[in-house]
Amino acid sequence: MKAPLVALFAGLVGLSPFFATAEPAQGSFVASQRCEAFQSIRKQSNPDDLAVQPGQRYDVVEVNKREYDWLRIRMPGSATPLRWVSASCGTVEGLAFNTGKDAQRAGGGDICSRPDQHDGYVLAATWQPGFCEHSSYKGSKPECEGLESGELQISHLTLHGLWPNRQSCGKRYGHCDGPELKLSADTLAYVRPWMPNFQYGTRFGRYQWNKHGVCQTQMDDDAYFRRAVDLVRQLDESKAGQYIVANIGGAISRRALYQKVEDEFGSASAANNFLLICSGKYLQEIRVSLPRELKPADSLVGVVDGQFAASRSQDRSECSADRILIEAGGR
Predict the structure, then answer these.
(1) 85 near 101, Cβ under 8 Å?
(2) pTM for the whole thing?
(3) Which domains, ranges and CATH numbers included, belong to the chain?
(4) Rounded CA separation 132/137 (Å)
(5) Mutual orientation of helices 203-211 and 221-237 as an angle, nearest 10°?
(6) Contact (CB, 8 A) for 45 and 82
(7) CA nearest to 91, candidates 114, 66, 108, 68
(8) What pLDDT digit, counting tens, does each position of 178-217 carry?
């Protein structure tokens, strides 16, 4: 009998409560043995014959109950990546439930300001001319003054930030305890072309690090900013990014941009990972939802790895009209 089936028969008692009490959760599952990964426990269905492998780590997204014996994990690379695996097949690390009453954990403080509790990332890429010309930044953006004077010429997407994101916390996830920003000279040079505020200092970069970067510990500050720059470059080089660049001084179609995303990623669900932010009729920012595991890849398609959101995130500044104007920078 296959390993997970032993636990399966024990868990089949009271199946209705099993599904009724399933709860969203966050953590890691480290497999200690090979076990089947079921799409449906009741039907024992396993498309693609997926199995967890010893020593491999998987993200937990749900448990069957508080005193769990089954975990729903994410297995990248499958058309149906969310699978159930028996808890007896490995160990669980850093488990936290996503309900408001569990925001405080014993000895752990507010889960919305504790590092490594994120369930994904948001890449925020600015269309700098649109932001500078049509947003109120109260004189705090020297790069905008540089654009106005002609000192800076920007014709690509730029980095606003790479934000660890915890869905249950919403915009409150951030300001975790962590080290101060101390970027190397090489990293500063790497970042400057893609985060133009760095041409004038590191104040904005320090703000991004203190609010967002310290909420993950997989990357130090140098690696974090370099990876964020790489992601913005990949977005700029994508079909959606090049569609914007090709229409500087003109307009794009919101529907056409989302269609380009769907075509490039090979799924109608891919557009759910992209959110367009406008200031009036002008494009200001693109936000891209990314997985918790930022895999090395040559393009955003590989980074996302088929992990598409069920629905697009909401923001009151989302571009509502189909026609979106792309501001040209400089004089």
Answers:
(1) no
(2) 0.70
(3) 3-97 (2.30.30.40), 113-325 (3.90.730.10)
(4) 8
(5) 100
(6) no
(7) 68
(8) 999 999 999 999 999 999 999 999 999 999 999 999 999 9
